[in-house]
Specification:
InterPro entries: SCAMP. 61% of the residues lie in helices and 0% in strands. It is an all-alpha fold. Among the domains are: 34 residues; 157 residues. The chain is extended, with a radius of gyration of 42 Å. The N terminus and C terminus are likely disordered.
Length: 282
Amino acid sequence: MAGRWRHDDNPFEESDGDVVNPFSHPRPTPLPPEPVGFYNDIGASVDIPLDAKKDLKKTERELMAKEAELNRREQEIKRREEALARAGVIIEPKNWPPFFPIIHVDISNDIPVHLQRVQYVSFASLLGLVICLFWNILCVTAAWVTGHDPRIWFLAVIYFITGCPGAYFLWYRPLYRAMRKDSAFSYGWFFLFYFFHIAFCIYAAVSPPFFYVGRSLAGIFQSISEIGENAGVGIMYFMGFAMFVLEALLSIWVFQKVYWFFRGKGSEAQMRPDTASRAPPF
């Protein structure tokens, strides 16, 4: 009959008569067994040669000796720093310029408040001198290339490599220490060499026509001479002249302020800002 289900029509019956479950998954094939070492031994032992053991012990002893030496040096440095502090010697860590510290500059913490402005301006005059001498090298190099005596270039380089560190050690550091410790000797040292610094700036701004025709310094006389020969070099010399003039004026201002403060020791207590509403004299 058409509507009757027959046993032969069972779709889940295999040829041998077994019924297949459609929701069951085939059983995975088991992996072959792996040999296990006796007493759970996971691998063969590695023999370390006696020479390697001796080398390790030797290296360990050397590292311990170096560590002990470093500790000894650190204690020695601390002992010296403490001795210097007891003796009144101030250690100044190098912190300027930030990308390559070569000098110590911490005006806001080292210098009294009523003298910080003068110290900042003196530091600006130091940087101004460095800029003036560097620009002077560029001017003299341009003049040398256009046919002037090469000795003027060597003189310009000598001005730079001696003037910059000389200014720092001869008058900037003495002024820094004088304002920090109120030392009369440091003030005297500053006045002596700062006077020569001002005289050099004035001489460079004028650059009289002698000493290799004066072309080793970018001053007014040489600017006038160069502008007639080469306009570009002449303009560079005029810019150097303006820089030396500004440096001289700035240095004269610093010299005057420091001198007034040094001579006014009797009124120093009045100059100090003892209240918050009192403004610094400089």
